[in-house]
Write a structure and sequence with these properties.
By secondary structure, the protein is mainly α. It is built from 4 helices and no strands. The chain is elongated and about 65 Å long.
Length: about 100
């Protein structure tokens, strides 16, 4: 009996279901640059709100947390091989892309 290995064979039912599940999860977690811009605006609004209500110390704390997250995301993007604008864009999407899900 001749078995085919590799990419030349047809995927079985289990592999087709797994591929479909992966596609759905990728679609669910996809973010856009427009959503990241919205996340940036919402974050800036929240930091400004903290500045008005809680004072400069709270605004610096919240803004510092966001800046720290961006720095960690940028370091991770550079570590995975992205450089320059591509690394900054990836870090921006990782930091503010959550607004795409709203």
């Amino acid at each position: 009996m001749d078995e085919q290995d590799g990419s030349g064979r047809e995927p079985n039912a289990y592999e087709r279901v797994l591929a479909e599940d992966r596609r759905v999860v990728r679609e669910l977690f996809r973010v856009s640059i427009g959503g990241a811009h919205a996340g940036f605006v919402v974050t800036a609004f929240v930091v400004a709100l903290f500045a008005v209500i809680g004072g400069a110390v709270w605004a610096l704390a919240v803004g510092g947390a966001v800046a720290s997250w961006f720095t960690v995301a940028l370091a991770a993007a550079v570590r995975t091989g992205r450089r320059g604008r591509a690394a900054v864009t990836r870090a921006y999407l990782l930091t503010f892309g959550w607004a795409s899900w709203l």
